[in-house]
Amino acid sequence: MKGQSRPNDLVGYYLCSGYNNSLLPISSRAKAAGSLTGCDRISQMSQTLATRLDSPRPDAIHGLTSLRFFAALYVVLFHSLTPMVAAVEQNRSFVKAISLGYASVSFFFFLSGYILSVAYPGSGRNLQNKKLFYSARFARIYPLYLLTLVLDTPDWFVAHARSFGGYVSAILPTSAMFGEHLLMLQAWMPWQRGIDRPNWSLSVEVFLYLLFPFAAIRIWNLSSRAIVVLAPALWIGGQLMLLLASGHLSIDALMFLPVSHLSTFLLGIALARWQSLNEQRIQSWSHWVVVSLLVTAGATTGVLLLWPDLFPRQYLNDGLLAPVFAQVILAVSINGRWPAILLGNRYLRELGDASYALYLFHLPIFHIVERLHLPRTWYVYAIYLFSCIGISVLSFRYFEAPWRFRIVKWLTRTSSPGHA
Fold it and tell me: Would residue 2 count as lying in a domain?
């Protein structure tokens, strides 16, 4: 039936589209080489349940999966390097180098809009069945979110017991805090953000996911010329909204409220649409064009690292860097160019698949290490960092992927027209 997804198409497709950037179908080259990534393995599992899909998405987009790992790693360094390594506090170069770590989250929102657009309207998949889209997003983000939330709650409880007058008195506020996070409301109430603090971005993602089917359909019907007009309007409009709201809202509210990140997400959709309309011309770009994109993005980032106070944090956190993100994504997503080849390495893609776990696990692990009162040395930090990465890879393979498979399998079965 027109406009209705076939149940046997859904499992494999939805498993590998979304927060991570892995692609379907499994490339025959990867099969032959025995180089299946975690998401490829999910695809292989799902082929007993789903028809294999012919996806027009380029292999080069695997580079964006790898790029997500480096963005997540930058967040980890931003949160943990200074408090865990005493020498860093005395080295202004290190402090400046990690000072923009929080802006990686803005990159995630931009990339999320881009990838979802490539995975859905960009691949000819309709969004009329919103229940299946939302179910796929739930299966992708919530199991690990819930696990890390449970893991970090005891630390918040212990850390705040004294301020509440003891452990018994802390039970009720801890339960309230846990409930708000359980419902993913913390970004709407930034003053309540506390358990595994980076997970506020998942609260934002839920808001963006809710809007995506409506926004993507409209943006995907625009012409290239309309996109060229829309993109600057979204970028300037988003920054003007922050400027106007700055006199009425706190900095925390401006940085974390979901509506502050909407323009960044929509710009990711707009970039995907513009790229799809100009694919042949973009593919013909020379290596020098790719280099110029990366050099310009790198130079802009370098200026901001040298002068981290040049712009207020809320602007850098809420989409000011969107043009830089667009240049990097364009450079990495062009087939056959060295950034796509370099970042398409299967080991980097495996780390990219695990980036979501790295993002959510690093702070609960940090809190555990913090309570051990270990020396603040590079040696201890190296153990911490590699432990975070290792746990994240294991989590993707043995927790995220299996649970996502089970949830999507169940959801697609219950969504089947013939299901009683």
Answer: no
Question: What is the tally of structural domains in the chain?
Answer: 1
Residue 24 CB burial class (10 angstroms; 0-12, 13-18, ≥19) = buried
The separation between CA 1 and the C-alpha centre of its own chain, rounded to angstroms, equals 34
Is 25 or 108 the better-scoring residue by pLDDT?
Answer: 108
How confident is the model over 11-38, as a mean pLDDT? 41
In-domain check, residue 25: yes
Query: How does 316-354 read in b/e, with b if 16+ C-beta sit within 10 Å?
Result: bbbbbbbbbbbbbbbbbbbeebebbeebbebebbbbbbb
Question: Of 4, 266, 273, nearest to 128 (Cα)?
Answer: 4
| 168 CB-contact burial (10 Å; exposed 0-12 / middle 13-18 / buried 19+) | exposed
Query: Rounded CA gap, 404 and 235, in Å?
Result: 34
Summarised one tens digit per residue, pLDDT across range 293-351 is 999 999 999 999 888 888 999 999 999 999 999 999 999 988 778 888 889 888 999 99
Q: DSSP states of 39-53 as a string?
A: HHHHHHHHTTTSPPP
- b/e sequence 66-93, b meaning 16+ C-beta within 10 Å: bbbbebbbbbbbbbbbbebbeebeeeee
The answer to whether 109 and 209 are in contact (CB under 8 A) is no
DSSP string, 256-309: H-GGGGHHHHHHHHHHHHHHHHTHHHHHT--HHHHHHHHHHHHHHHHHHHHSTT
Domain span at residue 404?
Answer: 7-415
Torsion of CA 319, 125, 400, 38, to 10 degrees: -100
Residue identified by tokens 């040395």 is 377
- Within a domain: residue 85? yes
> What CA–CA distance (Å, rounded) separates 75 from 308?
16
Residue 111 belongs to some domain of the structure: yes
Model confidence pTM above 0.70: yes
At 79-127, the pLDDT tens digits run 999 999 999 888 888 888 898 999 999 999 999 999 999 988 877 777 8
